[in-house]
Amino acid sequence: MSQQRYLEPSEAYHAFVNWSGSYSVAYTGRIDAELLVEAFNLLCKGNPLLRARLCREEDGFAFLLPAGQGAETTVRDGGEPVYLEEMGRPLDSRRALCRLVLVRGAEQGGHLILVLHHSMIDGRGGVTLLEQLLRHYTALTKGETPLVPADAPLPSPAEDLLRTRGGAGAPDGATVGDQVDRAALRIALAGAPSPGHLEVAADRIRLDARTTAELIGRLRAERLSVHAYLCGAATVALRDELETGGAPRPMVCGCPVDLRDRVRPPVTVAESTNFVSGVEARVVVPYGGDPRSVGRRIKERLDSAVAEGEAERAILEAQQFTAAEPTAVDLVVTNLGAIPGFTAPDGVRVTDFRGYTTTTMTGLLLFVVTSYGDRLSVEITSPAGHLTGEQRAGLVRRMGDLLRAPAAAPAGT
């Protein structure tokens, strides 16, 4: 029997803009495609929305799980160009919310990709599902049968879990946001035409382990968080490429806030869909500005918003939909932090992790920061054509310089 559930506004927004993200690992060794597909089927059994698709109805967007339908799998041979093509290929959410891709290199090794729709998962969830897939595959290579829950329930929207588990934005399960007409919002989102798909241009900065350690050591000595410095560096680098010289430029940096550990009990990936909110920081950035100073201002704003429960209220009060003038954001810095080593069977070694979105919005740049194998990486995606090739190269070069050899901290900081 098919299952169906209407999306709450926090989920429906991602359905409306049709965001999906790609999560991948590079590996050495050989992966058995048939066993991998078997492991993927087990993953989908334990996480039913991986088998779902989206549909628009008069009452709103809905997750639909057709009986007996499996998720999409693709196996291709090829090198880096094929891999990057698959990383950037968006989902057709009317057909599927998930896709597994295995790209096998000419020699032993290749890339494993999970493409996931943002309406049913967030970044931390994507990393978790990728690890679960590799754990299932590793067990199958040993002749073991992984245990997965039968008839797993559909995960809950953030609105439900925040109301029942509390948090700074809804203490003790208070009814914050109950004045919002969610049914009307669902109808409005489903009835409006979605923005067109914007192809992304993807760039990457990857430090070696030594440079990563030196950067972290310098920032710790200055009592500045890595996240604050990365936000400052991204904002300064973008400002310098958008306009050479000139007066200080007002900019808005968005920072996703992971809410899973801010409620009691903490919310697991299996329990929820997208459990991340956002906070925007307005800063005025001079040409050639100091990333430390800009980063500290962004961090102060983020810390204050988190302490006051603004991130929770943004979901419960549907602020991104009910604001008279929605905030125009120049960039978003998503810091997924250190990614634990992925499980792999004998003869296979995971050497790298990457994750970025398959589409974006007009004028919006996304910076996804991770650390895998003690190497810091920054994935930069922008709307194709928003920046010239020279500007993109300059942005990567400028931010790379700020990470590899940051200037000395100004006196008094």
Automatic annotation (TrEMBL):
- EC number assigned by the record: 2.3.1.282
Q: Does the keyword Acyltransferase apply?
A: yes
Question: Which major enzyme category is it?
Answer: transferase
Q: Which residue numbers delimit the Phthiocerol/phthiodiolone dimycocerosyl transferase C-terminal domain?
A: 200-380
Query: Carries keyword Acyltransferase?
Result: yes
Reaction(s) catalyzed by this protein?
2 a mycocerosyl-[mycocerosic acid synthase] + a phthiocerol = a dimycocerosyl phthiocerol + 2 holo-[mycocerosic acid synthase]; 2 a mycocerosyl-[mycocerosic acid synthase] + a phenolphthiocerol = a dimycocerosyl phenolphthiocerol + 2 holo-[mycocerosic acid synthase]; 2 a mycocerosyl-[mycocerosic acid synthase] + a phthiodiolone = a dimycocerosyl phthiodiolone + 2 holo-[mycocerosic acid synthase]
The record places domain Condensation at 3-146
Q: Which UniProt keywords apply?
A: Acyltransferase, Transferase
Domain of life (superkingdom):
Bacteria
What family does the Swiss-Prot or TrEMBL record give for this protein? Belongs to the acyltransferase PapA5 family.
Descriptive protein name: Phthiocerol/phthiodiolone dimycocerosyl transferase
Query: Which organism encodes this protein?
Result: Streptomyces gossypii
